[in-house]
Amino acid sequence: MVKPMSQTHPHQNTLKMRIMPSMLALLASTALLAACSTMEVKQAEINPTDEIKGPGLFSGESGNILEGFKSKGKDNETASASLGVNTYLWRASLETLSFMPIKTADSAGGVIATDWSANPTNANERVRANVLILGKRLQASALQVTLFKQTKGKGDTWADTPRDEASARALEDTILTQARALRIREQAAQ
To answer: I need a surface site. Which of 42, 106, 145, 166 has the fewest CB within 10 A?
Structure first.
């Protein structure tokens, strides 16, 4: 025997009211899926410009990221077409700073920024460097290096210390020497 609605428990009505919208949504989604099964699906056309060519955008044919920055022509004073700065200064900067973690490297703008690197001889010091290459000519005025230094104080907090301009000049000299060596090596190979 079926009880009339007035005799059912009040919680049973609330439960039915909650389940009813869910059941209707399930029925509607089933109907939509059944309607989609009769639709004809075409495979997307392949755009030739979307195809991957070579090992990487910046790496050139060899897969080495530095290969993309080598000079392509006889004019050794300018960078390759992909660089906005002198290719020798750019490569020498990356090679010289390779012992530090590189945070940012923008070859079009000539900016290299490293992350903090601990001093191997003193764990209470750390440094980071910013390198700015200002032009396409291999000359000292086209390179600007800024070094930042911090020391660990009480409570393991880092505090800025005055900039060491002599170390920044020494790093600039190292980069310039490396850039000149790269240019001489490349000219000898041609």
So the answer is: 42
Tens of pLDDT along 38-81?
556 566 565 555 454 544 444 445 555 555 555 555 444 444 44
Q: Which fold would CATH assign to domain 74-189?
A: Alpha-D-Glucose-1,6-Bisphosphate; Chain A, domain 4 (3.30.530)
Contact status, residue 138 vs residue 148, Cβ threshold 8 Å: no
**Neighbour-count burial for 35-67, b at 16+ CB within 10 Å, e otherwise:** eeeeeeeeeeeeeeeeeeeeeeeeebeeeeebe
Helix (H) or strand (E) holding 105, with range, is strand 102-106
